[in-house]
Amino acid sequence: MKSALATDFDDAPVKGQKTKQGQMMRRVFFWTHFVMGALAGVFILLMSVTGVLLTYERQMIRAAENAAVLAPEEADPMTVDTLAEASIAMGAEPGNTLVIPKDRTDAVILSKGRRDNTLLNPFTAEAMPEAGEKTKAFFGRVMRIHRWLSFSGGRSELGAAINGAANLVFAGLLITGAILWWPRTWKWAFVKTQLFFRKGLRTAQARDYNWHHVLAAWSLLPLIAIVVSGTVFSYGWANNLVYAAFGESAGRNGPPAAAEQEIQPSEMPADFASASLETLLGQATADYKNWKRVSVTLPEPMAETVTMTVDMGNGAQAGKKRTLTLAQDGSGVIGSPVGDDATAARKARIFLRFIHTGEVYGWIGQTIAGLASLAGAILVYTGISLGFRRLIRMRKQAKAKRA
After folding, report:
1. What is the CA 305 to chain-centroid distance, rounded?
2. Is the residue at 119 inside a domain?
3. Mean pLDDT, the chain cut into blocks of 10 residues (403 residues total)
4. Does one domain contain both 27 and 119?
5. What are the C-alpha distances in Å from 355 to residues 225, 226, 402?
6. How many domains are contained in the chain?
7. Strands of 116-120's sheet, edge to edge?
8. Rounded to 5 degrees, what angle do the CA atoms 247, 311, 97 make?
9. Number of Cβ atoms within 10 Å of the Cβ of 386
10. What are phi and psi of 100, to 5 degrees?
11. Bridge partner residues of 211 (DSSP)
């Protein structure tokens, strides 16, 4: 009797698959699954491998940037006020932000816009344009392959279209694969062969069968999250569906956050005393002992308030950020801290952005996403291997019949 692991989707009737119609449907799903994998396998493999390489991109870039910080002998990190003054001397304006890490020896970020960021040495306030340059260049190249199938230069429209289509095919593979995976009989002796790796398998075919089914079972949900979110990035219609699901249209902005609300200046009293930004930073973080970084919005020279955003996450977790408005005179926080006040659709869109990398759940989520990507790469290999072995076996059987 053949082992269940050695059947390789064998068409022979088995218990739980009694009708010819059931056998025929299984063949249809198998060949659909195999053809899709054969057509898009190379591109899915590339996206999976690059996805693995990008697993801890944020942490590795940050580590490379911080490693570039050179501290003068016996020097202490600058205060927020000194860094702000140096930033203004470098062309920063009110409304720009300084991102101050909890470890004050780490690099500071001066942000003048979404794509205009400058790293500053926390000891000298000097710009560090080459900090982490090689690391960022490496991940930039990997990201271009992952997104646009571009091995040199910038975005490739053709590559983006191919990867987008391959991602959709991957969704089809997950659906048909789940149907093929579904146990023909729900007896534990059989089900466990679909859920756990087995030792002592005698053939490569049996090993690939086991690996393919086990990895498919454990990686299905994270792979679905990765594929669905990837579709939203790749296609405007998918992005529009996210907004439409919440009754909004793409591009609509929600109410301005506290950090963006315009505060009308008033006439300042002659004896007005402005507290230092360093003092205000201490007030902002007083109730958040596990803070990781604070974004300080550079205030107008005679502003009554200063806005700071305390981040207790990895930078990608909107729910772990709180925006506070502090009185410039040092009297404390004005009003209540503001969390993520984006519209429901915008929150969903941001969630999808970071569920793709797993960052929405911190390093645990990143690890799961990375392992799922690794599983995706192995699924491509084992799936194509199983399919081609079947083609070879069918060819031999056809020759034997003719002989």
Report:
1. 35
2. yes
3. 42 51 86 94 97 97 97 93 96 96 97 92 96 96 96 91 97 96 87 92 93 96 97 95 92 48 46 82 96 96 93 94 95 92 92 96 97 98 92 89 80
4. no
5. 7, 7, 54
6. 2
7. 116-120, 108-113, 97-101, 293-297, 305-311, 321-327, 333-338
8. 90
9. 20
10. -100, 115
11. none
